[in-house]
Amino acid sequence: MQLKLWRNALTFALLFPLILGTAFSQEKTPTPEKEAAATPATPAQVMEQGALDLLKKMSAKLAATPEFVVRTRGSTEAPGGTGQFLTFFTESVVAVKRPNKLSAEIRGDAPPFDFYFNGEKMTAYEPTHKLYATMDAPKTLDELPAFAAKTAGILLPFEDILHSDPYAILTKDITSAFYAGYSVIRGARCEHVALAAPGIAGEIWIDAKTDLPCLIAGALLDVQGAPRFTVEFHDWKLTPKLPDKLFTFAKPEGAQAMDFRALTGAGR
């Protein structure tokens, strides 16, 4: 499990001023006091094969699904004007068509945001102000997350489910994995797996019947206050027959083009 993968869901809302910029535009985040909070303890190193097997089943299910639609609900902690962490919520509708198509409609506590990828172009669109940015993109979903982060400052909080081999991504660099029981989420029994990597304490709940992820949660242990995030997955549609036009941005009348890093604020 790479550090950036768990970090994505937490930092997602902060990467787009279009999404949370309004919330912070009138206040400057203070520098945290060094003595404000103690560093959380590093999780003990335990590696259980049963936990890894659950991850393998989930990953195999995702990898074997050529196209799907899923809804997500995420919560993200971010520092407010006083240094206290505030919680923000986002909801997304994510459509995937392997190996090279993605669209996401993101709504929540701040302005809306849409994202398109069709194996040729990557486009971000903010519908409230009709602002968009587009550029040439790599050919596959596996290449997209790293490319989007490097060139446009975009991190995708759901990138774990996009990869052709989620297991390899989730388990890279992990130091601990164990079974933590089960929970009932939206009426479904979800097997609870705890993971850890340097600086990260993460959890995944996996639907016992479908082998699909129910929820991902985590905390950044090396960040002041160990802020937390959650991303819940629900309303999976595994045979949606998605049209290719869904993944190509259709410019609305009056929409204005911008540079990607200006649009996302990554150049600040």
What would you note in describing this structure?
The protein is 21% helix and 37% strand. By secondary structure, it is of the alpha+beta class. The protein has a twelve-stranded mixed beta sheet, covered by helices on one side. Strand 3 (101-108) and strand 4 (113-117) form a beta hairpin. The chain is built from six helices and twelve strands. The radius of gyration is 18 Å and the shape is globular. The chain has a single domain, classed as outer membrane lipoprotein receptor (LolB), chain A (Clam), CATH 2.50.20.10. Mean pLDDT is 83; it is low at 1-38.
Poorly predicted ranges (pLDDT <50, ≥5 residues)?
1-38
Number of strands: 12
Give the overall average pLDDT.
Answer: 83
Helix content: 10-25%
Look at the helices and sheets and give the structural class.
alpha+beta
For the record, the CATH class is: Mainly Beta
Q: What coarse outline follows from CA principal-axis ratios?
A: globular
Rg over CA atoms, rounded to whole Å, is 18 Å
Number of domains: 1
End-to-end C-alpha gap: 29 Å
- The name CATH uses for the topology is outer membrane lipoprotein receptor (LolB), chain A
Strand line-up across the major sheet: 7-8-9-10-11-1-2-3-4-5-6-12
Order of helices and strands: HHHEEEEEEHHEEEEEEH
- Name the CATH superfamily assignment: Lipoprotein localisation LolA/LolB/LppX
Work out the strand percent. 35-45%
Q: In DSSP terms, counting alpha (H) and pi (I) runs of 4 or more, how many helices?
A: 6
CATH architecture: Clam
Q: How can the largest sheet be summarized?
A: 12 strands, mixed
